[in-house]
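not sure who needs this but someone in the group chat was asking about Excinuclease cho from Ideonella aquatica so here u go. i didnt clean anything up, its just raw.
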Amino acid sequence: MAEGPRAQADALRSQAEALPEAPGVYLFWGRSATLPLYIGKSIHLRSRVLSHLRDPDSARWVAQSLLIEHRRTPGEVGALLLEAALVKQLQPLHNQRLRRLRHLHAWRLVDGAERPELVDTTRVDFATTPHLHGLFASRHAAQQALRSLADEHHLCLQRLGLERPWRGSGACFRARIARCGGVCAGHEAPAEHDARLHAALAALRLLVWPHPGAVGLIECDETGWQQVHVLRHWCYLGSADTLTAARALDRSAPGFDMDSYRILSGGVLREGATLVPL
């Protein structure tokens, strides 16, 4: 009976050792032809996949695996984008990260506004709307984040719209224990409070898509092989080997994608990247 699992483990190791030591995405498949067990990415495919075979945390799904598939990319950016796209498309059983959230929330705070407005991706296009701050999986998470900023910067929950005004003097409870600057009781000017709010939210400001339409991000490896990654409104639409094929991939973005936004907004589109309008 032991020969079955041992033979399966030996077969997986042989498949792993045959992988290139290069960037790309790997997929572990079990008996299902449509539902992979796990999807990951690495700039060193062989080493990363071999590490799964000896990792106790991966043992449960490795033991169910029959096949290791890989898809090469010229570099890390392509691997990151492809991994996030495949996890959303194929919904592997053992990936918890990178699954598409149905609705995202953000705080919208325009200049001169007294308080931020909570908006979500069913109402607002996060890729093209200015003055948005933060990416939150739920309304509750957004409110908790704003409360944390209020604690850190002595902001008033009443003025933020998170609590109803108190009766009497108007001073909120947090002002009475020196956790609010006291704008609710007239102890500080509203403009002073609001300036702290704008400064607190500035670190969470979302970037607006900086191009009039889709662009191709060209990524090359050391051999000269290149791919064109098609991007529109922070959304990854696919990759092609030529500009002509890349243009055929351009379409309306299916919706704001938090993962591709985080991959691309960290400087990928600014730090020497080769970008071509499509």
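also The beta strands are 24-29, 38-42, 67-72, 105-108, 117-120, 132-136, 215-220, 226-232, 235-240, 274-277. if thats useful
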